[in-house]
Description:
Layout: E1 5-6, E2 11-12, E3 14-17, E4 23-28, E5 34-36, H1 61-76, H2 78-82, H3 87-102
Antiparallel strand pairs: 1-2, 3-4, 4-5
The structure holds zinc ion.
Amino acid sequence: MTEHYCEEHGIEFTEKTSKSGDVFWSHRKDGGGWCNEAKAKKPTQPQPAAKPEPAKRDSSPEVGMCWNNVGNRIGDGSIDRDYPKSATKIKGQYYKYIFGVTGIKLEKED
Length: 110
Ligand SMILES: [Zn+2]
């Protein structure tokens, strides 16, 4: 088996030179016309390195949804009912998050 062999027709290609000077390989088909060898594939260019994913921040949609859930629980009071011991801490974290995202300055109210 040679390097320039047509699997489809079971015949070897012969080297030709096109008018523009390009070398290609083809063979005559039984029914007339020519069967050209597919051009050798160019080596694939190495893909540019993918951009590193930006570091996930706490404002990602998933985290936001979780906090939204916490907010709902704070709103309906279920956080106090289900987590009476840590409700204050959770609320503190929640508001810290909300204010962190919105940029609202949290003033302590006594
Ligand atoms: Zn062929």
